[in-house]
Every structure is written in C-alpha cells, then in structure tokens.
Amino acid sequence: MSKEKDAGVSIDPGVEESARQRAIIRELRDEFTQKGWNKTYWITTLGCQMNARDSEKLSGILEEIGYRRSEAEESADLVIYNTCCVRENAEQKVYGRLGYLKNYKKRRPEMKIALCGCMMQENLVLEKLKKSYPQVDLIFGTHNLYKFPELLQAMLSSGERIIDIWKEHGEIVEDLPSNRKYSFKASVNVMFGCNNFCTYCIVPYVRGRERSRRPEEILKEISQLAQDGVKEVQLLGQNVNSYGKTLEHPISFAQLLQEISQIDGIERIRFMTSHPKDLSQDLIDAMATLPKVCPHFHLPLQSGSSRILEKMNRHYDQARYLDVVRRLREAVPDISLTTDIIVGFPGETDDDFEETVKVVRDVQFDSAFTFLYSKREGTPAAAMAEQVPEEEAKRHFDRLLDVLKEDIHAKNETWVGRTVLVLAEETSKHDEGMLTGRTPHNQLVHFQGDRALIGSVVPVKIVENQTFYFTGERIPSE
Ligand code: SAH
Ligand code: SF4
Ligand code: F3S
Q1: Regarding the domain with residue range 416-474, which homologous superfamily does it belong to in the CATH classification?
Q2: Entry pTM
Q3: Example GO molecular function term (predicted)?
Q4: Architecture of the domain delimited by 180-294
Q5: Which of 41, 250, 391, 426 is most buried, by CB atoms within 10 Å?
C-alpha cells in the first residue's frame, strides 16, 4: 500500500488537475463577462481523428470561456492550428498558413495565433518556430493539451509569447469541457500514444508511450453521450488491440466492446485502428457476436512484401496478414475491410511493389488510403540507405490507385439494388436537398432527403455505384 493511501489522502493527480483547469476556465469566463469581451476563435485541424477529437476539447474550453466560433479565419481573435507531422505535406501547410496570417496580424495585432498538436513535439520544428515565426503567440504540445485554459490565461494576461512543450506524457486528465461536432455520433479516446515504432512513423515520438483510459471513465463518458442522444461511437487508439493491458486491473479490448454494447441508446460501435500483428481471436469473436459492433475493420497493410514489412518493423508477414483477413471473413462473412498502404518505402523494388498489388488483388478491399512514403527525420527509415526515387514511387502509386479503383468499383457493384441502413450525417456540400451518411459497413451514401432526417437511421436502396461512394433512394416508411 502506498504512503498516500495510508495517510488517507490518495487524490488522483488527474482529477486534481482537471479541477484546477476548470477553475481557470471560470476565472476567464468572469473576466470575459466583466470586460464585455466578445472574442471569436477559429481552429484548423490537420491529421487524424485523434487530433479532431483534441480540437473538440479545445473548442469546448473556448466556448465555455465565452469565445464564439468565427465566421472566417482572417477575422478571428484567436486562430489555432492543431498540427500533424505524419507526412511532410501536413507540415508545409502550416508554415504556408503562418505566412498568410502574418499579413492579417500586421493589420490587426490583437489577433492571436496558437499552435498545438504533433508537429510541436518535434525539436527541429520548435526551433524553427521560435526563430523565424514571431507571429505565433502560444505553442503547446500533445502531452499538455489539458493545460490549454492555463496557457491561454497566461498568454492573455502577459501579452507575451508562451511556449510549453512536454517531452513526456503525464496523467490522463478526464472531464474537461468538449464541444462535439455531431449530436448523434461521437469519437471517444480509449487509449493514447503508441509503442510500436514502425520504422517510417513519427507518431510514437510525438504522442508518447501507450496508455489506456480506465474502462469506468470510458463507460461513464459513453453512457452520458447516449443520454445526450448519441447513437454511434467511434473508439480511438493507435492500436486498440493493446487496450487495457497496462491498467491496474487489466481488461481486453474485446471485453470493453462487450461492456459498451450494453449501454442503452448506443446503436453502432466502431473503432480505429487495430494492428494486424496482435489481432486477437477474442476481438474477432466479439465482432461476430456483438450486433452493435459495425461489420467494418480497418486493417492497415502498409506493404504486401514480407521483406519490406520486416524493414518496417510491422511484426507480421504477407501470409499472416492474409490469415487475419481469412479469420475475419470466416467470423463476419460480409465484413468490409479497409486499409492503409505506403508506397516507396526505402528499398522497395518493383518485385516488392508487385507483392503489395498481389495482396490488394487477393483481399479485395472496400476502400483504402494510399500514401507516398514521406521521410520523417528521427525515424529509423529516414536513415535507410536506399531511398526510392520520387518518379518511381509515383509510378507505383498511380498503378496502385488504378488497381484499387478497379477492384473497389467491382466490389461495390454487388451492393447495387440492396437496401442499407444509413445514419444520415449532413446535407451534401454540393446539393442542399441531398443527405450524406454512412452504412454499418462504413460506406458513404448520398440520397435525397430532408435535413430533418439528420441523426436518424434511414433505410436507403443503393442505386448507383460511384466507386468511392454510392447514391441511393430513401425507402419511404410505411
Ligand atoms: N496507428 C495507425 C496509423 C496511424 S498513421 C496504424 O498503425 O494503423 C496513419 C497512416 O499514415 C499509417 O497507417 C501509414 O499508412 C501512414 N504513414 C505513417 N507514417 C508515414 C510516412 N512516414 N510516410 C507515409 N505514410 C505514413
Ligand atoms: Fe505509427 Fe505504427 Fe504506431 Fe501506427 S502502429 S501509429 S503506423 S508506429
Ligand atoms: Fe494523428 Fe498526425 Fe499526430 S496522424 S497522431 S495528428 S502526427
């Protein structure tokens, strides 16, 4: 037993910290009211769903303080970039925008610019920002996002530039405000960080070691979401297969799914991402037996070549990947499978690439994200001798896209004429009379419908296959 417990003062540091940040939010809110401030904010989110979820937290904090969402970035009082560094182009975008915003700030010096997210955890980036981007007022990282109220207060009261980056993560801080994008579906973090160190990937360096949220916290959050009308939850983690292993009372991801399934009101459960190397039979069985768990699995392949997979430190080979696919299909016959593939990893030859094409042809994915390998300083792959020439990687990339398009189109044809249940999410960007939503298999469907249907599950007959989405017709209810 620890000393604190003996003394009867066992305060969870995460709980204490959350109370402290909430107190600062109240102080700032009072200050905003007293001074009659009418400030606005704008957040641009780059990168993955982890960042999207973090931005919901930032905007929740800001709105509780009294900031309103701005109509445009250029007129906002506070502009935030929640950055990504998984590939170089995501970083270039941020530098480009900072140059653009500099002009606006010249005219309106009260505009404040804040940067956070994964890119801030890179030393070289931080040095560059400190030296050459004086227009940035606040910089924080991925490990201290929960301290945003305190850092914001310091920036507003001092008028000075505030930089706070932690090299390592601290406690998981629960229960801070959050402003969710949709009222009927929500993302929920189940774990943070990654321990896998795939040799091309920077995520473990910028998001820290793997740690899981306690199941009680997750279940409490999801029960509250369900009470607020949320029907679909997406559980987020870089590798959900290792969920719960390091908790004081270990629990598996499959058990967590089982518990979430029991929450009334939750109709659909999704998750991202799981790593093929340690996909457990328990999880496959949970997919088959829990009706609320959607029949969709995102299973990143990265490469089909066993030789390259080894150099990527992925801990599986082509045969093992194909075996996982077989077991998933055995358990859930019409499961939809999606993937991530990297083209142009150092040393990738024509033969290696053909192995990737072979796996793609064998598996027949429902959809795929394909990426040109991007060299990330500090990762083992960046130091590998045989970087692939850009033209060669691009040639492979284009061919892979052609193969995928052909296969995805052919596979989608089997869905035409079928009736699917679409959770209507929003009106189409191009046509106000059209709604867009997703099926349990995660297919995107556009159909004619009134915006009053947003948030409901609507039966739709699939009419046309547009390769990356479907168009359908709503089946009128009796
Ligand atoms: N944890 C997830 C992936 C997170 S990053 C997983 O393991 O599946 C999302 C995707 O970005 C990866 O699956 C990979 O395909 C791609 N990616 C990561 N690093 C990359 C790099 N250096 N260059 C190109 N693509 C990369
Ligand atoms: Fe990156 Fe690999 Fe971790 Fe995914 S599992 S985040 S690709 S290191
Ligand atoms: Fe996500 Fe990009 Fe960070 S992919 S974890 S936002 S580096």
Answers
A1: Nucleic acid-binding proteins (2.40.50.140)
A2: 0.93
A3: tRNA-2-methylthio-N(6)-dimethylallyladenosine(37) synthase activity
A4: 2-Layer Sandwich (3.30)
A5: 41
